[in-house]
Amino acid sequence: xxxxxxxxxxxxxxxxxxxxxxxxxxxxxxxxxxxxxxxxxxxxxxxxxxxxxxxxxxxxxxxxxxxxxxxxxxxxxxxxxxxxxxxxxxxxxxxxxxxxxxxxxxxxxxxxxxxxxxxxxxxxxxxxxxxxxxxxxxxxxxxxxxxxxxxxxxxxxxxxxxxxxxxxxxxxxxxxxxxxxxxxxxxxxxxxxxxxxxxxxxxxxxxxxxxxxxxxxxxxxxxxxxxxxxxxxxxxxxxxxxxxxxxxxxxxxxxxxxxxxxxxxxxxxxxxxxxxxxxxxxxxxxxxxxxxxxxxxxxxxxxxxxxxxxxxxxxxxxxxxxxxxxxxxxxxxxxxxxxxxxxxxxxxxxxxxxxxxxxxxxxxxxxxxxxxxxxxxxxxxxxxxxxxxxxxxxxxxxxxxxxxxxxxxxxxxxxxxxxx
Amino acid sequence: xxxxxxxxxxxxxxxxxxxxxxxxxxxxxxxxxxxxxxxxxxxxxxxxxxxxxxxxxxxxxxxxxxxxxxxxxxxxxxxxxxxxxxxxxxxxxxxxxxxxxxxxxxxxxxxxxxxxxxxxxxxxxxxxxxxxxxxxxxxxxxxxxxxxxxxxxxxxxxxxxxxxxxxxxxxxxxxxxxxxxxxxxxxxxxxxxxxxxxxxxxxxxxxxxxxxxxxxxxx
Amino acid sequence: xxxxxxxxxxxxxxxxxxxxxxxxxxxxxxxxxxxxxxxxxxxxxxxxxxxxxxxxxxxxxxxxxxxxxxxxxxxxxxxxxxxxxxxxxxxxxxxxxxxxxxxxxxxxxxxxxxxxxxxxxxxxxxxxxxxxxxxxxxxxxxxxxxxxxxxxxxxxxxxxxxxxxxxxxxxxxxxxxxxxxxxxxxxxxxxxxxxxxxxxxxxxxxxxxxxxxxxxxxxxxxxxxxxxxxxxxxxxxxxxxxxxxxxxxxxxxxxxxxxxxxxxxxxxxxxxxxxxxxxxxxxxxxxxxxxxxxxxxxxxxxxxxxxxxxxxxxxxxxxxxxxxxxxxxxxxxxxxxxxxxxxxxxxxxxxxxxxxxxxxxx
Lengths: 420, 219, 362
Known about the structure:
The structure holds 3 protein chains of 3 kinds.
Chain A: H1 5-15, H2 18-26, H3 32-36, H4 38-43, H5 55-65, H6 67-74, H7 83-95, H8 102-106, H9 113-126, H10 132-144, H11 152-166, E1 179-181, H12 185-190, H13 194-205, E2 209-210, H14 221-225, H15 228-245, E3 249-252, H16 256-270, E4 277-280, H17 281-290, E5 304-307, H18 320-329, H19 359-365, H20 367-376, E6 380-383, H21 386-398, E7 404-407, H22 408-414
Parallel strand pairs in A: 1-2, 1-3, 3-4, 5-6, 6-7
Helix pairs in contact in A: 1-9, 5-6, 7-9, 11-13, 13-22, 15-16, 17-18
Chain B: H1 3-11, H2 13-36, H3 50-59, H4 69-91, H5 93-103, H6 112-135, H7 137-142, H8 145-166, H9 172-189, H10 197-214
Helix pairs in contact in B: 1-2, 1-9, 2-9, 3-10, 4-5, 4-6, 6-8, 8-9
Chain C: H1 7-13, H2 18-31, H3 38-48, E1 53-58, H4 64-70, H5 77-84, E2 86-90, H6 98-111, E3 116-121, E4 124-125, E5 134-135, E6 138-139, H7 140-149, E7 151-157, H8 158-163, E8 176-177, H9 179-182, E9 188-191, H10 198-211, H11 224-227, H12 238-243, H13 253-256, H14 275-278, H15 319-350
Parallel strand pairs in C: 1-2, 1-3, 3-7, 7-9
Antiparallel strand pairs in C: 4-8, 5-6
């Protein structure tokens, strides 16, 4: 198929379901969602009001799914959605929405706005109005195996290095293992410490696990792009690998959107339930901790906080686990203002960090995180999403802030108790 | 038509017409929304849908996230208007007499002085919200003809009712006719405008809570 | 030489003092809300007024209006003033009957053509050529049209003549109509009420005799002096309405305390009449003082304005049934139209072309 306005409109209409129609029916234009969006709070520009980002889709709903709207459009009294309009909306739907879902919690009438943004992107990409950077990342993911163009050979190099470092064997393609470990591209490229860290933890806790050579990368830029067709292809690889290796669990990496793609969207993308379960690495670590299989020693007394990745808390329901783990190894843990489900996004989720032209806006939006950090005066920020980690580091550097960003899994690995 | 015939029409046929349009339209809308349906979620659930959905229907009325000054204004004036409107609607003795005639049962009324305060606060809050809608950049951008029309249609019954109760303006017969006509216009507008949120908001909240609940998010 | 047919002369003959006559004139002036200074003018005009000929026609009526008039507190000047007019035809009050009675009517119409006053009580049946009410073999419609031709003005006494009243109530089997629907070329004054207040009738006649023209009328043809305010405006229970204190039943505490009767169906707020000020039976009282709400009898359609005992705020027709039917219709529409919408989506899903990596390649 080729991208076209009509194609995009048809794709958007395909997406309009009961919930979306209900949400649009309920909006009273109160503007409270603006206060929940860091792109609005930090710029004070009304165009970043979350519900406004959906205006073309709202009109489509009105014209195609309401009695009055149908009547009006038949009479030629309504404004049709144009290509120019969708082009103008591209920066609103992609550059200034991290799909953090904070607006969905703020809306007094109960509209799940980010649910609609996700669906609107389906139409945007088919209409040809998606950012080139996310398109490129998706293309690389499909053609090469990862959005950053990382191949299994790269991972293999890291595996060898980690095996040398830990003195342990890292299982690859081991049929019948309990857990299949998936990583994010950012972890492989920037935070490869995660590989020896999980190796040591799993050895410590006696977890049967494996990497898969044909399914090791969990980032799903197809989902960020908003194309279920492409996202299904990417998630399909992991499903295929997991089924080939007959694992019981697939471990989602420290990456928020990978978790959403794998845990919540995956079965719906491929159109069938998984024959395995998906757990976030943090969920698994907390289960091991609760079962007494994860023993740590020593306490880190650095003043540190935890940055909640949106897709883990607000859109994923993993809130208490990282705190329980942190309290086991850190004696000076403080919460940010509005922790948990109400936490503010780092500003780079939902594909935003991949869009180069969005960088200046993203740094402005980071002021929200900066003010949260300024309020608590910590030395270290712990998080459990490699994309948040990258964006936080970027922002800290941009604003000349001294804090250090650490992955939770690595922090735990550092405190593993010595073997008896 | 003489004034009495006009009054009789708005108390009879007019009210029947308006009720019919409102009930038909809202039944249509709610059922249509439900029947549009959604795809079955194939991801393994961590929590449930119904409990959190129902809880959100109620709890979202009280969620006050971190708000800016403009947000706080919207919430305070918005709540004043909604509460005041429903107190006036449901607890003025004349309204209860009307509802008793339709429903077959009634409830105790609030003293007129309390209704008076509620009505004045509601009118003031509505005027403030109108000014804010026009002044605030976000709301102004979001607002169209419908937003101002629905404001007017909500304001008129309140204003005419207040005038009726205080003997301001035309004679009682004419004022009662105007009051009932304004109510009928409001009833007719409900299914065609954002006023439908008075019922659809509960479905919207249910979906919102159910989606979160399914994933085990305690929102 | 004095005119022996003037009112003053006849009053003197009957032993009515000038003092009582002036008192009457003052009372009339205040009743019609005229400035106090006008009382002597009324007296002067009335004193010199000649007895006009009056023809009183009764159609579909209950004689309540006549009863109201004759039972007015007697003896009063109100009744005496009727001696001062020449009531040439009134089939309840006249002594004559049969051909003699009809002849006196015909004579009056001929002798005073263009000058006589025509008083009408009762509505006029118009259906089936007006056959539902006849006098001396002639239909009411016929009699009215004949008598109206030579009348100087017509006074419609009571709600039936003024607005159709009870005979016109649904389903109006006789096609009853008020005078004003049938006669368009004569001045008509409506003195509505079921029955009307006697002093309002005499007041209007006094005004006519004094000024030689009809008083100022409201949009329904009623003299503003008596119908300018509502019962509610002047009701002694009004403070309770303002406070929201309502009797819920006819024998509850509120009723005993004299609270407002709104919720018991009082139509005072929408009823224009002078009951609350003039009162009835020589000032003894009016219905609300007896503990019963106003029925709204001086307003058009008062028989069809819902139950006398449902409050003004209540609908006058069945809302529940219509709402039920509308809900069913809405549900049916939703089922049909959502099927169409789902079919539209389904066809889009069936023709869904997969987005491939080629489509997003730069």
